[in-house]
Automatic annotation (TrEMBL):
Domain Aminoacyl-tRNA synthetase class Ia: 14-410
GO cellular component: cytosol
Protein name in UniProt: valine--tRNA ligase
PROSITE patterns (alphabetical): AA_TRNA_LIGASE_I (PS00178)
Biological process terms in GO annotation: valyl-tRNA aminoacylation
Keywords: Aminoacyl-tRNA synthetase, ATP-binding, Cytoplasm, Ligase, Nucleotide-binding, Protein biosynthesis
SUPFAM superfamilies: Nucleotidylyl transferase (SSF52374), ValRS/IleRS/LeuRS editing domain (SSF50677)
Protein's organism: marine sediment metagenome
A molecular-function term among this protein's GO annotations: valine-tRNA ligase activity
Localization per Swiss-Prot or TrEMBL: Cytoplasm
Class of enzymatic activity (EC top level): ligase
Length: 410
């Protein structure tokens, strides 16, 4: 007698267990012809940060359709499943769970915290795999991988040594994207940008020597006055007639009383602010490049906790960047060095997982030399070996690769 209501859960699970038991998803257990060609595809490993969402379901279904079609066509078909430890993303969700219990990563220490990570992996890793099975995904579960499996870790180490022997790796100090909350570097692809209204201050930097026409100062524009404590130059565009007579002159850095030069660099936008910008090689990627071109010193004024270092005047040492900004502005106002403050629209970079505002910092890290690696990728597109649809993405890709910097992998 048929049931009044179709129990899809019970019936689908029964059918799926039968598929698994008979080894339909394992290419080594299928009866195939001797000349059967292999077809292998990877399941993009979902992060173990929680349950799967509708996007995962869509991608899995599309892959499953392809895999089943190849299997029916007689290919020796393998759909390899796996899950990803997700690094910072998993660290953050585990920290949030610990916070609910009144605990922190720092209190637990590294080893105990790793134990919590593995507990999370066991819980949500299994949940993710079961969700995929409920979708009917025809993966070979006997080959399930995790990106922290020991042999995977060994493969990463082997690749690292391989690139090092080829001379493609080096350790160097460079301004990187630093998340003060996660305490880690982030690649440009791991940044999220938020549009906001910010204050733009115009600040007078007194000239060391008053000019014959009576000019006593140059006015610079900045949204981050706290970083002026690490300035090592003021930059203007070489074609900007307003400032050509000032190129080569010296100014006295307010609050620090350090002599710094006025330099000319084509990267300066004459239309931004006053057309004169402060150069802080330790707190901005563009400024770092300017500093390298002009052999400027670097003064590291902000540490990995986003607090002011001992390189700044004593009264600002240990302050957070936000408190330091208020203190610096207050002191500049007392000295009547603030010319103007206005609101502007700008974008700030934040950590893609915790939304903390990124702090550009000089840090010693491992980098991959991209000059040699990018050339084959560029040539493959130029020769038509790789095609883009729509065509406009070809230019975007090539522009990005041609300007790519060495890749921070630490």
């Amino acid at each position: 007698m048929l049931a009044k209501k179709y129990n899809f859960k019970e019936i689908e699970e029964k059918i799926y267990r039968s598929w698994e038991k008979k080894g339909y998803f394992n290419p080594d257990k299928l009866t195939l012809g001797k000349d059967a060609r292999p077809y292998t595809t990877m399941l993009p490993p979902p992060n173990i940060t929680g349950s799967l969402h509708i996007g995962h379901a869509l991608n899995a279904i599309i892959q499953d359709i392809t895999v089943r079609q190849k299997r029916m066509a007689g290919f020796k078909t393998l759909w390899l499943p796996g899950i990803d430890h997700a690094g910072i993303a998993t660290q953050n969700v585990v920290e949030k769970e610990l916070a609910k219990k009144g605990k922190s990563r720092e209190e637990l220490g590294r080893e105990k915290f790793l134990e919590e990570i593995w507990k999370w992996k066991k819980k949500y890793g299994n949940q993710i795999l079961n969700q995929l099975k409920r979708l009917g995904a025809s993966c070979d579960w006997s080959r399930t991988r995790f990106t922290l499996d020991q042999d995977y870790q060994e493969a990463v180490k082997t690749a690292f040594l391989k690139y090092q022997k080829k001379g493609l790796l080096y350790q160097g100090t460079r301004v990187v994207n630093w998340c003060p909350r996660c305490e880690t570097t982030l690649s440009d692809l791991e940044l999220e940008y938020q549009d906001q209204k910010s204050d733009l201050w115009q600040i007078k930097y007194p000239l060391k020597k008053k000019l014959k026409d009576g000019l006593k100062a140059i006015v610079v524009a900045t949204t981050r006055p706290e970083t002026m404590l690490g300035d090592t130059a003021v930059a203007v565009h070489p074609s900007d007639k307003r400032y050509q007579k000032l190129i080569g002159q010296k100014v006295i850095l307010p609050l620090v009383e350090r002599e710094i030069p006025i330099i000319a660099d084509r990267v300066v936008d004459p239309k931004f602010g006053t057309g004169a910008v402060k150069v802080t090689p330790s707190s901005d990627l563009t400024d770092e490049l300017i500093g390298q071109r002009h052999n400027l010193p670097t003064v590291k004024i902000i540490d990995k906790k986003a607090q002011m270092t001992k390189e700044v005047p004593e009264k600002y040492q240990g302050l957070s960047r936000e408190k330091a900004r208020k203190a610096v502005v207050a002191d500049l106002e007392k000295q009547e060095l603030i010319v103007k403050k206005e609101k502007i629209s700008n974008r700030i970079a934040t950590c893609y997982r915790c939304q903390t505002v990124i702090e550009p910092l000089p840090s010693k890290q491992w980098f991959v030399k991209m000059a040699k690696l990018k050339e084959p990728a560029i040539k493959a597109v130029e020769k038509g070996e790789i095609k883009f649809y729509p065509e406009r993405y070809k230019k975007i890709y090539l522009d990005w690769l041609r300007e790519v910097r060495d890749w921070c992998i630490s």
